[in-house]
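pasting input
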Amino acid sequence: MKVHVDRQRCQGHSRCYDLAPELFDVDDLGNGFELGDGTVPAGLEDKAALAQANCPEHAIEIRES
Amino acid sequence: MTDSKVTDWATDFDHTDPAWVQDPYPIWDDLRSRCPVAHTDRYGGAWLPVTHRGVAAVAYDTEHFTSRSVVVSNVKPGPEDLPAPIGLAPPITSDPPFHSLARRLLLPAFSPRAIAALEPMTRDLCRELLDATGGRSEIDAAVDYAQHIPLKVIVGMLGFPQEDADIFRRFIHMVLESVDMPAEARIEQVERGEIVDYLEEQIADHQAHPRDDLTSFLIAAELDGTRLAPEMVRGTVLLLMIAGIDTTWSAIGSALWHLGLHPGDRKRLSAEPELLPSAVEEFLRAYAPVTMARMVAQDFELEGRSLREGDWLLLPFPSANRDPSVFPEPDRVILDRADNRHAAFGLGIHRCLGSNLARMELRVALGEWLARYPDFEVSDPSAVTWSAGQVRGPRSIPVRIAS
């Protein structure tokens, strides 16, 4: 599983970083991005889903790889 | 209230009517089912979408809707005094492309890491306020607690005198609640009067004595190699003062009001403080304080209604957050609601700049209150009073503390 933040949609609500700091970080402007290549380590799938379900801008994509 | 009571909310709504101020949710529920975009001739003509879809459509459309005035009042800017794309209080009153420049300037000061650094000071402040209530069995959760927290934090960030708190509260009331006064009087009060004098005095003091705060930062900041115009410094300081204070004070107050009326939620949150982050989001959803506004920039069809250039439009994020097509059981507060894409901080490019600050203040304020007073109740629900206008929150919450 991989996560990806669509930078066009992200408006810096920081929900992903608050809920799953193992998977996401924010830049100096507060915009979110996935850590590394976005691969979700085993056991963190629920956190990835939670981050997606709380992004007001629908900016988080989850791909089953 | 302008002149008369509202009898039909679909054709004559007024967000300062006592019925809306007391409890707007039944009004929005009714409109969602029969007239999802309501209209009023008051304030020179205004629209009100109440569904999540309608609110989002406007929030994302910066072509047909301008932010040049975000408080609906009897002062309606005309084509002659168009302040866009900068506006009176950038970046909230700015449109693209200037908007992102003004916003980028401020974003680093409100990033999650910058805000985390303010948490210890905020926690100390909450504890001091609670210490001051010690020994009393009757407390006002709004007057004695909620209202002071964001005010002191913002005054500190701006580097203004802490003893000016009462002046700030009066200015906020003038800008946000006195929207029904005649246009001339409102312009005099908000755009030319003592607010401007006060801000200029503070800015002059910072020019003479620069220090490490947001006001000095704005004075020294440059956009495209040029210092900000004095009106822009003043407008941005005004925005931070107005937007950063009674909004969060309202959110903290609404959450304490809810907990003081719902012992089940209060006991659960006291026993499981690890639920605080999700509970904060749920309080923000259920009791979102802020209704924004736009003006129609170009004629637009919204859900079958014909909006004309120059019309006002209220953007009730609190109503979007209660839309049952997006949030199951929208009127129930579920402290651990898992799917919560609420719009309390807006949607799109104008997402509340201070959302990280507001969330931190809410989490700390509720956590400290519950640690000190796990057992309390609203002593007289009928004595609770609510603010009028586009920011909604309790202004008085008498509570009884169990001994």
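fyi The two ends of chain B are 42 Å apart (CA to CA).
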